[in-house]
Write a structure and sequence with these properties.
It is a single chain. By secondary structure, the chain is α+β, with helices and mostly antiparallel strands. It is elongated and about 60 Å long. The protein contains two helices and three strands, in the order βββαα. It has helices at 52-70, 78-86, and strands spanning 5-14, 22-31, 34-43. It has one domain. β2 (22-31) and β3 form a beta hairpin. It starts with a strand and ends in a 7-residue tail after the last helix.
Length: 93
């Protein structure tokens, strides 16, 4: 299985009011045929410019860890997949 390619797509300041301004750092995630963007929002006041990308990468990692934990019960074994495949009601061609 090929690896996902994760690149920095955009950095935008989402300035509403100066005291609660946020930076939106968007990552592009690719592995054919899957491609999507995931924005990470960080407070401008929490990190300095040189730390922002590192903090966003950490937040992206945390997001995927939480997603993996929440979907863990959905994981099927190879035997489960074979059983589901054998139950398919689609006509064989």
């Amino acid at each position: 299985m090929s690896k996902f390619k994760i690149t920095l797509a955009r950095i935008e300041v989402a300035a509403r009011r100066e005291q609660d301004s946020q930076v939106r750092i968007t990552f592009q995630v690719d592995r054919a045929p899957i491609s999507f963007q995931l924005p990470i929002l960080l407070s401008i006041r929490d990190f300095d410019d040189t730390e922002m990308i590192q903090a966003a990468r950490s937040a992206l990692h945390r997001t995927f860890v939480e997603l993996a934990a929440q979907s863990q019960k959905w994981k099927l074994t190879a035997q489960d997949l074979r059983q589901l495949s054998s139950m398919s009601s689609r006509p064989k061609t």
